[in-house]
Amino acid sequence: MASFICPGCSSAVPSGARTCPGCGTSLAATETEAALEFRSPSPLPETPFPPGHLFGGRFLIVERIGAGGMGLVYKAIDTTLNSEVALKLIHPALALIPSFVERFRREAKLARQITDPTVCRVHDIGDAEGSLYLSMEWIEGESLQQLLRQAGRLEERRALEIAAKIALALKAAHEQGIVHRDLKPGNVMIDAAGNVRVVDFGLAVGPGSEEITQAGILVGSPYYMAPEQKRMERLDHRVDFYALGLILHEMLTGARFDASPGSLQRLRSSVSHAIAPLLERLLAEDRERRFASAAEVHDAIREALKDPAIARGAPTRRAWWPTVAVACATLVLVVVAWRWFGPASKESAPPKPAAAPAIDTRALGYYNRALHLLRDEGNPTSMDEAIQNLNRALRISPDWVLAWATLGEAFWLKFWGDPQPTYREEAEAAVAKAYALGPELAEVLVARGLGLLRTGDYRAAEADLEKAAETKPELGIAWAYLGLARGKLEEYVDGLAALRKALELEPLNYKFRTYLGMFHEMFQEYDEALEAHRKATELDPGAFSAWNNLGALLMYRSRFEEAIPVLEHALAIDERGAVRSNLGTAYYFRGRYADAVQEYQRAAALEPEDARHWGNLGDALVAQEKREAARDAYRKAAACARVQAEQSRDPARIMSWATYCARAEDATCAVTRAQAALAMRPEDASLLLDNAVVHRILGQDAESLAWLEKAVLKGVSKAQIELVPEFAQLSGDPRYQRILGLAK
Question: How far, in whole angstroms, is CA 39 from its chain's centroid?
Answer without folding.
Answer: 20
